[in-house]
Sequence to fold (396 residues):
Amino acid sequence: MRKSRLHSSLFYGLAVVLIGAVTCFSPVGAAAAGATSSAAATIRIGGNFDLSGRCAYIGEMVMSGAKLAFKEANDAGGMIGRKIEFIPLDNAFDKAKAAVVMKSLAARGDVSAVLGCLTATNTSAAYTIAEQNRMPLISPSAGNYLLTGNDGKVKAYAFRTCFLDIKQADLMALFALEDLGAKTAAIVFDDKVDLFRAMAFYFEKSFTDAGGKIVAKEQVGSSGEVSQENIAQIRQAEPEVIFMPMDYREGGQGIRCLRESGIGVPLLGPDLWFTQRIVAYAGEEALNNIYYVSYFAPSDKLPKLDAFMFAFAKEFKRPADIYAAMGYEAAGVLIEAIKKAGSADPEDIRTALEGIETEGLLGTIRIEAANHDVVRPMTIDRFVEGQGFAYRLFKP
Fold:
C-alpha cells in the first residue's frame, strides 16, 4: 500500500548503481568558446549567472560547465555551420541586477537564448524581460514549478533542465520509507526561505500520505543555524531519519551540531549539499550516514558522465561537481535545440525546446511541451567519511 501510493505519485522506479565520486572557475567576461569577429558567423548565447555575492561559487561552476559544452560543440565543427559565442554576465545574486543583465543581453539584438538564472527569485525577475523580448531563458538550477507556468498556463519562453524542488522532497520521502525503512521522521528547516519551506511541506505530505509519521518539525532561528533547543526537541522525539532542506552552509553547520550531540540517525538533504564546501561547515567526521539528491554520480556504468569529468578537469584544472554538471547539461539541451531547429532564431529555438529529448550525463532529459516540466534521472548520493558517492539511481 505504502509503496504503490508513493510510486504512483512520483512515477519513479529504483535501480542500484555502484559508484565513486569527486567535486570550477573560469574568468568572467565575454568569454567566447571559439567566437569569430563576424556576427553572421556566430551564434551568441547569453549567460545570466551569480558570479559574485553569496552564490558566486555556484555561478562559476555552472558557467564553466556551460563553457565546456559550447567548446566541445565548436571543436566538433559548430552548429548549423556556425560557431557558438558564449557571453556570461554577472547578476551578483541580486534580482534587480538579474533583470538588468537580461535587458543588456536583449539590447544587443544578436543573442539567440540565455542560460540562467540559478535561483527562483532571480530567474523570475529575468523572465519578465525575456518574455518581453521573446527570448528563451533556460535555468540550469531553479526548480520552483511557478517559473515555467501558473494556473495551468505555461510561460512560453521559460525552461529548466533541473528537477522540480518539490519532487526532490517527494523523492527523499520515498527513499526514507522504502530504502531506509523509516517509519518516523523529523524535519529541520528555515521557514524564512520559500524553497526550504516548500520542501518541508512536500516531504511531510509524501511521507505521511504513505504511512510515515512526522515526530518533530523544527524551524531554525533567524541566523539560519540549528540551535541547542532544536536538538533537544529532536532528541526527545527520537526520529529514525531527519530531513534537512537547507543549503550547504546552514546544513553543514546543522550536521555538525547534530553529530556532536550524539544524534547518529540518517540525515537527508537537497541537491545543495553536493559540494566540497559543505565539508568546511560540517567537518569530515560528521559527514557519515548522510544522503542527498544529486545529478552527479560518476560510475563505470555512466560513461558519458565520466567523460565529462575527465574533460572538465583537463579544461579547468580542477574537478567537476554537480553545479558544473548542471551547466553542462543545460547548455547541451540548448545545443540540441539549435540542431533541431536548424536555426539560431530565438523563436525557432523556443519551439524546438518544447518536447525536446536529449542525452544528459545520467540518461535521457526531456522537456514536456505542454508544461515545460522536466523528465530526467536523479540520484541519491551518500557521504562516507566526507566523500560523496552515488548510492541509488532513479530513472523515469
